[in-house]
Amino acid sequence: MIQNQKSPVWASVCVKLLQGPLYRQSNNDPAWSLLCAWQGEIDRYFGVIGLHVFVDQADGYAFLEQRELGEEEDSIPKLITERPLTVQDSLLCVLFREALDQFDTSQNQSENLLLTTSDIKDRLDTFFPEKKDQTRVFRRLDESLNRLRDLSFIREIESSNTFDRTFEIRRIIKAKIDADFITAFRDKLKAILEEDEGERYDL
Questions:
Q1: Which of 16-30, 96-110, 118-132, 174-188 is predicted most confidently?
Q2: Same domain flag for 69 and 150
Q3: Does 99 share its domain with 189?
């Protein structure tokens, strides 16, 4: 018979992190408070299985990432799988990262960056000046936005306007989409252009 063993007070935070990124919902968010109070214990708990808890206190988000394993730990299978992004998904991530940087350097009093589908299309216009290219990209835009929403990179805001969706650009993009990612993406995009001169992007 398995004896009942009392779970630690921070067990619920571990479950939330296994389900996906954890965001601070308010100044008094109980889950976030538990994470901050027991961060060392939680990180050591996940460290046993080769994971690390990445916490950004300033922007209020946390997620699990695979840590570098030593030679003696090679037998531990990786639990965090990388989900590949399409070229269009990657382009949106780069645009959102740049929009966040611009937002943070402005004097905007709002804490969150909100973009509508129309705003996103306007930003994409600079990459796709040709009308035929815009039509092709815009036709797949909702699919890309849905994928990025499922990855918790963006959060859809409820709105009565079903033709112009509104999204909060979540700050986890700043951790996931860094300078190395942007450089690699631009190199990949240039390679695609060299193979297909029919595509037109403004790099």
A1: 16-30
A2: no
A3: yes
